[in-house]
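Task: complex structure prediction.
Instruction: return structure tokens for all chains below.
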Amino acid sequence: MKAGDYYILWAYKPESSPGSRQIQLWHFILELLQKEEYQGVIAWQGDYGEFVIKDPDEVARLWGIRKCKPHMNYDKLSRALRYYYNKRILHKTKGKRFTYKFNFSKVVLVNYPILDMASSPFFLAPAVHSSFFAKEWWLLS
DNA sequence: TTCGGAAAAA
DNA sequence: TTTTTCCGAA
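Output:
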């Protein structure tokens, strides 16, 4: 397969695989985004890859629970999100409150089984051969 | 609200 | 190296 054949890069990256240590914030964001029950808290909205944090305090609370950081808040969570700008994982959708957008031209990663991706917009990307979803992660740019 | 420097933490 | 914490500036 040629890297140029895909717009996204999405792969299953086991928690135990080398290189994946603790849950990363954007993995977590992606996780919430793919679950129906959190649509009132955070959801895809607008352009492809764009999402809105409808309830900043709740997202921060959930993130705090996951990372065992009881004092997490949106101010701090959003700082972590801002660090993603230079890393080209995310960028801000200016003018839209609490709205960010994933830069799919960069990577992809994922910590979750492909079966859980059915509801995500990534699934709308050009078909990718199933062999692509190996138990490793990929970085295409 | 959003940004990004600085420093500490993990 | 990523995230947390703190915070002044825009």
